């Protein structure tokens, strides 16, 4: 009898979820191609620090055979939290690292590098943006690329984030604005250049909350601290204020006015940063978000269940990637694997989305509590 053809699998997006899926597939001898719109692995900074949970992100890395390498890079001490009163700067609460080091921190860039280094050469096709997918008769799927070319696969996995080009093949859902914007800034060489802020933040993260305003400062590796100003404001808050986001001096002055009355020690995050300010409106997918199974295509991570950034997104994306990969190597067919994966992933993501929405309301309260 002729040997069955190995399934052709494409993953769109080289984030933690897609790369975890690719790594586990390769561990089991399965061919996979990852399409990524960025020009190369160093095209842009990957963002701040993540705490990987034992039952999700770390479980996925264990499945991928990468947990020891993760622990060599991770910072267990980064799981500390300090909560300060926004008006006085007084310490309200302090939490040390989770018992047993259950949620160590790692920079997003380090995590991505760890996953990329684990893949076979040329697994990732850089500078290959997806334009969309078209399900075909017989259960396959055509991946349309930004350069006008296309390729056919037995499965296309949309791991391409909030504004997924794969999602429309399954669902008409589009992300909507939460009413909260994060304004990001940063500090370099904090222990020597910004020692007061370094002491204030400690080894992990600092939090101070007012009504509709929250400040978060998060220690990253190599002496870097990222600051986040969370605002309950319209998405075009800067336009309404007549601000050009490129005019960093004017943005800084306006933000200081928005945080008038806050303790001066906390205002260092606005006043003394080494970097400019980047506005990041937070979007989410409707919850619950689900779809009817379509042969040849599925989603994972933010493409499937975009949530507020309160500590679950990357962890769930990696668990999604691991679950999908294991289904593909254990089920009798691609179709059976995707159905098995979606039966687990969709209910899990619906529950997590509800919790994340509540977490955002707690992080940036709309009223005094």
Task: Give a structural overview.
With about 375 residues, the chain is α/β, with parallel strands linked by helices. The protein has two domains: about 10-80 and about 100-175 and about 285-365, FAD/NAD(P)-binding domain (3-Layer(bba) Sandwich); about 175-285, 2-Layer Sandwich (D-Amino Acid Oxidase, Chain A, domain 2), CATH 3.30.9.30. It contains twelve helices and 17 strands. The protein has helices at about 15-25, 55-65, 65-75, 110-115, 190-195, 195-200, 235-240, 250-260, 265-270, 300-305, 315-330, 335-365, and strands spanning about 10, 35, 50, 80-85, 90-95, 105, 125, 130-135, 140-145, 150-155, 155-160, 175-185, 205-210, 215-220, 225-230, 280-285, 295-300. It has a seven-stranded mixed beta sheet, covered by helices on one side. A five-stranded parallel beta sheet has the order 7-2-1-11-17, with helices on one face. It has a three-stranded antiparallel beta sheet with strand order 8-9-10, with no helix packed on it. Strand 14 and strand 15 (about 225-230) form a beta hairpin. Helix 1 packs parallel to helix 4 (about 110-115) and helix 11 (about 315-330) runs antiparallel to helix 12. The longest helix is centred in the last third of the chain and has 30 residues, at about 335-365. The termini are far apart. About 45% of the residues are buried. The mean pLDDT is about 95.
